[in-house]
Predict the structure of 26S proteasome non-ATPase regulatory subunit 2 homolog.
Amino acid sequence: MDLSAEDLAVKQKLELYVERVQDPDPRLQMVALESMRHEIRSSTSSMTAVPKPLKYLRPHYTTLKSYYEIMGASDLKINLADILSVLALTMSAEGERESLKYRMLAGSNVDIGSWGHEYVRNLAAEIAEEYADNKLQFQISDENPNCDLMKLVRQIVAFHMRHNAETEAVDLLVEIGDHLNLLFEHVDKTNFKKTCLYLTSSARYLPARPDDAYLALDIAYKIYLKFGEYPNALQIALFVDGHQLIREVFTSCDDVLCKKQLCYMLARHGGNYSVPDDDDDDNMDGDSNNREVMQDIINNTKLSEGYLILARDLEVMEAKTPQDIYKAHLLHGQVSSSVDSARQNLADTFVNAFVNVGFGQDKLMTRVEPPKDHWLFKNKEHGKISAAASLGMISLWDVDSGFAHIDKYLHSNDNHVIAGALLGIGIFNCGVKHDCDPALAILGEYVDREDPSIRIGAIMGLGIAYAGSKNEQIGSQLNPILNDAKAPLDVVTFTAISLGLIFIGSCNEEVAQAIILALMDRTDAELGDPLARLISVSLGLVYLGKQDNVEATAQVSQTFNEKIRRHCDMTLLSCAYAGTGDVLKVQTLLGHCSQHVEEKGETHQGPAVLGISMVAMAEELGLEMAIRSLEHLLQYGQQSIRKAAPLALGLLCISNPKVNVMDTLSRLSHDTDSEVAMAAVVSLGLIGAGTNNARIACMLRSLSSYYYKDANLLFCVRIAQGLVHLGKGLSTLNPYHSDRFLQSPAALGGIIVMLHACLDMKAIILGEYHYVLYYLVMAVQPRMLLTVDENLKPLSVPVRVGKAVDVVGQAGHPKTITGFQTHSTPVVLAAGEKAELVTEKYIPLSPFLEGFVILKENLDYKED
């Protein structure tokens, strides 16, 4: 290749330097090395081309290496090692890691950053490779912090953190073991947000290494605390379920307004929290009133008020009837007869409850009518339980109005009505706490009544009202029922579920022991009943998301009766790893689904299919892969798998109607197997829950015409229609919140119980236990952004609402939303949407603009 005169001069110059380096005169050698170094550093080229000095020195690399070996120890030798380390960047053979070798020989006193980004990046990669080969594990350790390699790592991390390459610094420290704490020395106000965002995001992909994941979150938590980002620190504390960390966030925060915002976050997450008592009076500005206000926020007492403010703003306060939802006039084909049938009325009851949830008024149950014409009495026997309980849905989160509506039914002569009223009391207390615990006071009296339906109403009500509270008083009241030999199976099942929900994710050994004994005491005939399988779900709930903590209980489950053993195994595994995104556990569950089961009555594959969704729903990538896996299972799986797969799809995309999933479920809703079709129809309701999605609504309308002769399928279509219009489109069932980072355990628990009940639709939902559908209330949340001022009064400000963009690891200040529209708060947020303030007049006290957000006036703001 012909070189230009300029290039030829450079080439000859470098060849001369190579000769001079080997000269016996040390002064000439030094001049040659310095000149070579200057030439390499000053050469600039395009990003895609190798710098010319490196290209022209390639033939001499071996010569310089050989000469290095025969040189005596001196500064010259160190300088040559420095240059060889850079030349090795493009010239050493793959796997030799010579760049690192010569860097170590040159010592750590040279500024590695002067050789540029690419060189530093290559060194980091070689250190990671060397560590992976177990050659450096001893050298890089806390006992040996002064070793040259550790100094080099510190230099690389410092360089990356100074040059906006925070992600690469984190990657290196993750690769070489537990050294993330080195970040503390290098984070500052300019880079801590990006560093922490990358740490928290990467923790999702380290479930197979829980210690690494926990360390990443712990470092992010400490960095957030250091810079006073308390909402972010609280988010991590909630993620790892650390009560001590939550307390630390509160005691570290001095700003009362900020504390109130933290209380809104705790309220949204659910669970049993109280404002720490050890705050100084100075911290609280000497005002005990603040403590009460904060406890009220945590207790969710203002949730109903905020929800109704949104409804009034959007002008959807007027109650809707089931007929408004069915829109039968749009159908040209056959529709179900207008004759009142018990099944049709029961469906109407549920639709009415779902559509008017939380609005405090409807046109069926709260309307004043003569008793004989009242809607309640258009339902038969156990149907009255769901009808009376629907008042709890309509009065959701509003305890005072709920009692006003339901109180009269507690004095009824009909046991079913009393049972429904008790369940209703539990429902409207869901997610809301009250100082005097009215739900416990009333429901506790009915738990030991003789009538099984009254007992179930009270017990189920307690489970829903106190989910996640870990209330020992209720535990001690319900535990004896599990060991009562005379108690019927349905009472024992609902007691176990309530205990599972109250102690959800607590790993409480006493509760787990009681549920295990209840399972062992069941006869063979009882274990064949679909209800008995829900007892194993309650055991799973106690360990929800707690990963390895389930192992001792999983060993005990090996001793269960063979009818329930494998079913219980799958349920425990899927609950313990729910929301972790652990790929290895998904593979284990898929392995169970791929087995061909010959034995009749073997039911373990259903929970395994649901388990795939429960584990994979944690993050978007795993979610997409799980959808594809479920498509394969639908094609090749047996009947027990095919009827569970639609429900698993419904869980993956709950309140988030993805078009591909919608099409799959639409196809399955016409399946020849009625159980698969029913599961698909209910799942259509779940993926569209609270979205008012027009396409799903249209599908369900045409299905109601298609199945007008099939009472069971028509009932499922009606339930799905009610779910799609949940809260008139203002609510969601998605258990994830705070930018999809946190998962509400109680919300997921309610959904899991309902889905496991749907695995045997005919025996439970279409039988006399249809009120199991009300477990979904635990996941109902307003999908709103409501901004409030410093006095917690609603404040309308303009916001941009658009599709959220993943900005993890991106350079600069990228836009966090795309395709936005500007609205005034309060606004409704769809799945995958995010809001940001238009004006800088106010500063939001939460980094996540969803739910209740306190705005503080920006004192530096000047109007244009």
User: Anything to note?
Assistant: Residues 783-863 form one domain. DSSP finds 40 helices and eleven strands in the chain. The radius of gyration is 32 Å. The first strand starts at residue 731 and ends at 732.
